[in-house]
User: Fold these one by one.
Assistant:
Number 1:
Amino acid sequence: MTRIILESKTFLRALQRVLKKEPQLTDDLRTTLRLLAEDAFQPPLKTHKLKGKLAGAWACSAGYDLRIIFELVEVEGKPAILLSTIGTHDEAY
């Protein structure tokens, strides 16, 4: 089941920061977002539910130390993924 990908303003700003520092990650991020849209729980993504202040959100790996925080939502009755932020482990959490 393919999900719609929605990007929050916070995610877009964080993405610009990440790509400015490491532009070589562009292709890896495209692949990660494609996998996320196809099935957010594919093993390479290492998707896991978050606790504490981020309870209700999910995180997936977009590289060695890069994480994407997202929520599973519905838009007009269709499954979607709302991308909240992206960054290193310490930045994202």
Number 2:
Amino acid sequence: MTAPKQPVSVLVVIHTPELDVLLLERAAHPGFWQSVTGSREGDESLISTARREVAEETGISRPIGDYSNWSLSNTYDIFEQWRHRYAPGVTSNVEHVFSLCLPAPLPIVTSPSEHRAWQWLPWQEAAKRCFSWSNSDAILMLPGRHRPKG
């Protein structure tokens, strides 16, 4: 039997210096577009969760130092259709926001059981496409958070 999911997760906004943002379409919910998300497993650190989820959902493997921790969290109600994955009585989740800047858009390798499609979009368009308010809000904050290196 699989252990219940922890009500602690990460949201990772993957983008380029030009602020093109990667979105993934959920396999089980066509039309639901999102950034990389996922729950913490065991006692792993949040940054390790972010790195693992990016690798699992996109095939991208980057060192932990490439990730930016926004020190921002959102608490939201877990959708009714997904509550069975959590321990009985758990109805809310705390999501921690990270970003990952890549030099240019990359081809993505998704897991067909999780995502059915992917696309790179300008940040404003990506924010409009997201079904999740917290994901949309994070993308809208991206221009103020991204600090080009150099």
Number 3:
Amino acid sequence: MRSKKKYKVSLTEDLKNKLLCWSKKFEEVVWLDSNDKNNYSNYSKYTAILAVDAFTAVKTDCHQAFKKLEDYQTKTNDWLFGYLTYDLKNDIELLKSSNFDGLHFPDLYFFQPKRIFLFTNTGVEIQYLNCIEDELVTDWEDILNQDYKTSKFKNKSTLKIISRTSKENYFNRLEKILEYIHRGDIYESNFCQEFYSENTKIDPLNTFTHLNKISKPPFATFLRLGNLYALSASPERYISKNGNTVISQPIKGTAKRLIDKMEDEKLRLQLENDQKERSENIMITDLVRNDLSKFANKGSVKVDELCKIYSFEQVHQMISTITCQVDNSLSPVYMIRETFPMGSMTGAPKISAMNIIEELEDSKRGLYSGAVGYFDPRGDFDFNVVIRSILYNTLNNYVSFSVGSAITAKSIPENEYEECLIKAKAMREALEN
């Protein structure tokens, strides 16, 4: 059971900084921030959430991971926060992940927080487990009195970022994917490459703050689980459930932003009318419709928005919104299992695309192209897609970010490579100051 208290307060940048500074004392932290972009989706319940300090947790490799998560979620019947890595695909299908892994994140990690702060447009609701309810008011006062400005410092400017896939190898791999497409093995593949830095120390919180400031995405995440960090500027929702409504919002189609408003608008319109980008998006929209139809009420799967352009600080994105209605009796973990991994990060058909990804990519994806989010006590949930994200393991001082693009029969390798660099821009800037 939880003790609850509400305060009328505006979630200013100052308050965000104080919350994150206060959270540094805890080993388990999840901060989810919409950056006031709820106009992007009418399905978000909260403008931001902070959850800290594990009371219980589940951490596992991929073997029977979804069963373990379902058992944990059912038994706990409380708020749970955590992540699903891309490699949970191996729990669902006869697949493997044997590529190089410099990060060593467990395949699945969720915790039940002692302390939760739920922000809406009208204020904050604080929920504490009853065993620490006497700390609720004093913690809030402590947060408001934080002096975060004294703790600022920058990453080393000497940080060296290396591409694990050379440009030559990237083009060779793309030609191989195009062969698979022309042969009819797949229609589309999301092909990714890793950028990394070894023997590197960064300040995770300040790096996240910088990344979020220059990106302002609707699904920003700061995650700490012991020595593991995810600093995410994700613009993409994987899947959410609110009551009987399930929603998925895949992204396919990217264009850079320009300072000149007229030139920027030209790029936005060019993306909106780009037949190659639209075909990518429609293919994944069909895949998501098929995934949702596995458990949706008959005839309830609808495409609410098809190939709509949303503009963020760094990029224009083409996004579709697919919804369905579900029965109250369905397990929330079951719905995630039936749709995982998200089609926007695999390609179509899903299993063939994932086999080709494993064959041609140089790194294990791990948390990249997985999901971070939460379950609430009613069985509702909301998860992002881990893209535009910096991952960091403090034990081995390894920093990594990955980027990718969707390869179809119409893909031009040079353009796909340029798209990867556009997507990498914000992470590189946050790391290199």
Number 4:
Amino acid sequence: MGKRDDLIAKYADDLKNKCGMQADIDLLTKVTIGCGPSIYNADASTVSGGDQAELDTVKNNFLIKKLGLSESDGLDAAIAGVIDTYGKSNRNKYRAVFYYMLVKHYKKESVYN
């Protein structure tokens, strides 16, 4: 297995053990690939739930630009829901897992097909 495969296995484990979700490995792989090289950078591979600027970036660059959602789709509430599901006390919120949960929340799997 390559480095990306190892990370996808780690993300699937996070989904199962920290979020109580069974991962769709095919979709998780596509979301991970969509994150690009950021998954290999310690800082960029995680989302800081307490950093409003970072959450705004998730909202603008991922939810609005990538998934094609609008402000009226309750974006802040969805992000807050993902943070709650992942666990506020959990320091390492992996970007790929965060994005995966948002894709599932909005039923936007078609973006990755």
